[in-house]
Amino acid sequence: MPISFRTGRTRFAVAAAAFSVCLTALTGCSDSGGGGGGSSSAPATPPSLSSPSSSPSSSSASSRPPAGQVKVSIKDFTFRPADLTVAPGAKITVTNDDTTTHTMTAKTGKAFDTGDIAPGKSATFTAPSKAGGYPYDCTIHPFMTGTLTVK
Protein backbone atom coordinates (compact mmCIF):
# COMPACT_ATOMS: atom_id res chain seq x y z
CA MET A 1 0.00 0.00 0.00
CA PRO A 2 1.49 3.42 -0.90
CA ILE A 3 2.31 5.95 1.85
CA SER A 4 -0.14 8.80 1.97
CA PHE A 5 1.11 12.38 1.53
CA ARG A 6 0.14 13.21 5.10
CA THR A 7 2.17 10.32 6.50
CA GLY A 8 5.19 11.31 4.38
CA ARG A 9 4.94 14.89 5.57
CA THR A 10 4.72 13.74 9.19
CA ARG A 11 7.78 11.52 8.80
CA PHE A 12 9.70 14.42 7.26
CA ALA A 13 8.70 16.75 10.10
CA VAL A 14 9.80 14.19 12.73
CA ALA A 15 13.11 13.62 10.94
CA ALA A 16 13.72 17.38 10.62
CA ALA A 17 12.96 17.93 14.31
CA ALA A 18 15.31 15.11 15.34
CA PHE A 19 18.05 16.55 13.12
CA SER A 20 17.54 19.99 14.67
CA VAL A 21 17.81 18.57 18.20
CA CYS A 22 21.03 16.75 17.29
CA LEU A 23 22.52 19.89 15.74
CA THR A 24 21.61 21.94 18.79
CA ALA A 25 23.22 19.40 21.10
CA LEU A 26 26.38 19.23 18.99
CA THR A 27 26.65 23.01 18.69
CA GLY A 28 26.31 23.43 22.45
CA CYS A 29 29.13 20.93 23.05
CA SER A 30 31.46 22.04 20.28
CA ASP A 31 32.85 25.13 22.04
CA SER A 32 34.18 23.88 25.34
CA GLY A 33 36.44 26.90 25.69
CA GLY A 34 39.61 24.85 26.05
CA GLY A 35 39.54 22.07 23.51
CA GLY A 36 39.43 19.05 25.80
CA GLY A 37 36.57 16.64 25.69
CA GLY A 38 35.40 14.95 28.86
CA SER A 39 37.05 17.28 31.32
CA SER A 40 35.25 18.40 34.43
CA SER A 41 35.92 22.09 33.89
CA ALA A 42 33.32 24.79 34.46
CA PRO A 43 30.37 24.91 32.06
CA ALA A 44 31.09 26.65 28.78
CA THR A 45 29.98 30.27 28.75
CA PRO A 46 30.11 32.76 25.93
CA PRO A 47 33.48 34.58 25.88
CA SER A 48 31.80 37.92 26.54
CA LEU A 49 30.47 36.61 29.86
CA SER A 50 33.77 35.24 31.09
CA SER A 51 36.11 38.01 30.01
CA PRO A 52 38.37 39.48 32.69
CA SER A 53 36.87 42.93 32.18
CA SER A 54 33.49 41.88 33.53
CA SER A 55 33.18 41.62 37.27
CA PRO A 56 30.28 41.58 39.68
CA SER A 57 31.06 45.10 40.87
CA SER A 58 31.14 46.54 37.36
CA SER A 59 27.48 45.82 36.63
CA SER A 60 26.16 48.58 38.88
CA ALA A 61 28.59 51.20 37.61
CA SER A 62 29.03 50.00 34.04
CA SER A 63 28.07 53.37 32.57
CA ARG A 64 30.24 55.35 35.00
CA PRO A 65 33.88 55.24 33.86
CA PRO A 66 36.69 56.15 36.25
CA ALA A 67 37.37 59.84 36.84
CA GLY A 68 39.25 61.46 33.97
CA GLN A 69 38.21 58.76 31.50
CA VAL A 70 34.73 59.77 30.43
CA LYS A 71 34.53 58.93 26.75
CA VAL A 72 31.77 58.53 24.21
CA SER A 73 32.29 57.07 20.77
CA ILE A 74 30.05 57.58 17.75
CA LYS A 75 30.02 54.59 15.43
CA ASP A 76 27.43 53.27 12.97
CA PHE A 77 25.13 56.21 13.76
CA THR A 78 24.96 55.35 17.48
CA PHE A 79 26.41 56.84 20.65
CA ARG A 80 28.48 54.32 22.61
CA PRO A 81 27.42 54.31 25.37
CA ALA A 82 24.14 56.05 24.69
CA ASP A 83 23.26 56.33 28.38
CA LEU A 84 26.05 57.69 30.52
CA THR A 85 26.27 58.64 34.20
CA VAL A 86 28.90 61.18 35.28
CA ALA A 87 29.77 63.45 38.17
CA PRO A 88 28.89 67.16 37.94
CA GLY A 89 31.51 69.05 35.95
CA ALA A 90 33.10 65.92 34.46
CA LYS A 91 35.03 66.32 31.21
CA ILE A 92 33.49 64.20 28.44
CA THR A 93 35.36 63.49 25.22
CA VAL A 94 33.28 62.48 22.22
CA THR A 95 35.11 60.77 19.35
CA ASN A 96 33.52 60.42 15.94
CA ASP A 97 34.50 56.98 14.64
CA ASP A 98 31.89 57.22 11.89
CA THR A 99 32.07 58.24 8.24
CA THR A 100 30.03 61.44 8.52
CA THR A 101 29.84 64.50 10.77
CA HIS A 102 27.86 64.27 14.03
CA THR A 103 27.09 66.30 17.15
CA MET A 104 26.24 65.45 20.76
CA THR A 105 23.79 68.15 21.82
CA ALA A 106 21.44 68.46 24.81
CA LYS A 107 17.83 68.41 23.56
CA THR A 108 16.63 71.14 25.92
CA GLY A 109 18.39 74.28 27.02
CA LYS A 110 22.04 74.74 26.31
CA ALA A 111 23.45 72.25 28.82
CA PHE A 112 26.07 71.00 26.35
CA ASP A 113 26.84 70.93 22.63
CA THR A 114 29.94 69.55 20.96
CA GLY A 115 29.26 71.38 17.72
CA ASP A 116 30.05 69.52 14.50
CA ILE A 117 32.56 66.69 14.93
CA ALA A 118 34.11 65.60 11.64
CA PRO A 119 34.89 61.91 11.01
CA GLY A 120 38.00 60.87 12.95
CA LYS A 121 37.91 63.96 15.18
CA SER A 122 36.99 64.51 18.85
CA ALA A 123 35.38 67.22 20.95
CA THR A 124 35.38 67.67 24.72
CA PHE A 125 32.75 69.37 26.86
CA THR A 126 32.05 69.81 30.55
CA ALA A 127 29.03 68.03 32.04
CA PRO A 128 26.44 70.29 33.69
CA SER A 129 27.00 71.07 37.35
CA LYS A 130 23.34 70.48 38.21
CA ALA A 131 22.30 66.87 38.90
CA GLY A 132 19.66 65.40 36.64
CA GLY A 133 18.96 63.67 33.35
CA TYR A 134 19.92 65.39 30.11
CA PRO A 135 18.52 63.75 26.97
CA TYR A 136 20.65 64.45 23.91
CA ASP A 137 20.81 63.77 20.21
CA CYS A 138 22.83 64.44 17.10
CA THR A 139 21.33 67.59 15.60
CA ILE A 140 22.27 66.33 12.12
CA HIS A 141 20.74 62.87 12.69
CA PRO A 142 18.00 63.30 15.35
CA PHE A 143 17.29 59.56 15.49
CA MET A 144 20.64 59.23 17.30
CA THR A 145 19.74 59.69 20.96
CA GLY A 146 20.96 59.10 24.48
CA THR A 147 20.81 60.41 28.02
CA LEU A 148 23.55 61.98 30.11
CA THR A 149 22.79 61.56 33.80
CA VAL A 150 24.63 63.80 36.26
CA LYS A 151 24.83 62.47 39.85
Task: Provide key terms for this protein.
151 residues, alpha/beta, Immunoglobulin-like, 2 domains, four-stranded mixed β-sheet, 2 helices, 20% helix, globular
Question: What would you say this structure looks like, in words?
Answer:
By secondary structure, the chain is of the alpha/beta class. The protein has two domains: 1-30; 64-150, Cupredoxins -  blue copper proteins (Immunoglobulin-like), CATH 2.60.40. It is built from two helices and eight strands; from the N terminus they run ααββββββββ. It has a four-stranded mixed β-sheet, with no helix packed on it. The chain has a four-stranded mixed β-sheet with strand order 3-8-7-5, with no helix packed on it. The longest helix is centred in the N-terminal third of the chain and has 26 residues, at 5-30. The radius of gyration is 25 Å and the shape is globular. The model is unreliable at 9-65 (pLDDT under 50).
